[in-house]
Amino acid sequence: MTGPTNPFDWSGGHPALDLVNTLDERPSDAPIETLTAYGALVSFTELAGLIEPSAAKRLRSLGGPACTRVIRRARELREHLYTIVGSIHDALSVPQNDLDAIAVEVRRAHAARAFTATGASSAIISGWRLPTSPEIPVHACALAIEDLLLSADHSRIHKCGAADCEVYFIDTSKAHRRQWCSMKNCGNREKQRRWRSAAE
Question: What is the largest CA-CA distance in the chain?
Fold first, then answer.
C-alpha cells in the first residue's frame, strides 16, 4: 500500500478548519474539490492526525457504495461547518439546521467509539468499535468539528484577508493580527496588489 497523497491546505490551525479548506479556490466559480474520492478522505484524516496510519491502511482497501455514501456525508458535513464558520466570522446568527446536521454526525461518531481495558494494569483506552468500518473517516471529522465548536476560541477564527480567498484559520499569533492564510501566497500577492495600486 502506498502512503497518503497530500493535496490539502493546512493553514487552518485546527483539523476541522482544514476540513473546511478541502474545497479549494473558494469563492471562485470553479472551486477545486480535494476530497475527490473515499481514498482522499482517508488520506486527509490520516494526515490531519485524526486516525492512525494503521487504520488508514486498512480503510484504503475498502470500496463500493458504502464508501461513496461516506465521502458524500463528509462533503455535506464540511459544508455545514463552512456555513457555521462563515456565520461566526460575519457575526450572523448561526443556522440551526446546520448545527442539527452536525449534531447527528457527532452522535454517530460517539456511538462508534468504545472503551476497552488492556494489559495487566487494565489501562482504559478508547477506540473504534468496528475498526474496519468505512464510516471511521467521517466519524473522525465529526469529532474534530465538535472540538472546534465547543472548545475553540471563536473570536480567533478568521478568514484570509485576500479578496479571492476564503480559507479559514485560527489566529494563534501573539498580537492576534494574522491576516492571511499564508504570507507566502495570499499575503505576498495582496501586498503586490496594494503596491501596484499605490503606484498608479
Answer: 74
Place of cell 471562485: 28
| pLDDT value of residue 125 | 86
Given a contact cutoff of 8 angstroms between Cβ atoms, the answer to whether 4 and 47 are in contact is yes
* Beta-bridge partners for 70: none
Q: What is the pTM of this model?
A: 0.89
Residue whose C-alpha cell is 460517539? 110
Q: Distance (Å, rounded) from C-alpha 85 to C-alpha 81?
A: 6
Asked whether the beta carbons of 75 and 141 are under 8 A apart, the reply is: no
Here the cell at position 171 is 489566529
Task: Report residue 180 as a C-alpha cell.
Answer: 492571511
User: Does the pLDDT at position 144 exceed 60?
Assistant: yes
- Residue 118, classed as helix, strand or coil, is strand
124, 113 Cβ separation under 8 angstroms: no
Residue with cell string 494574522: 178
For 132, other C-beta atoms within 10 Å of its C-beta total 11
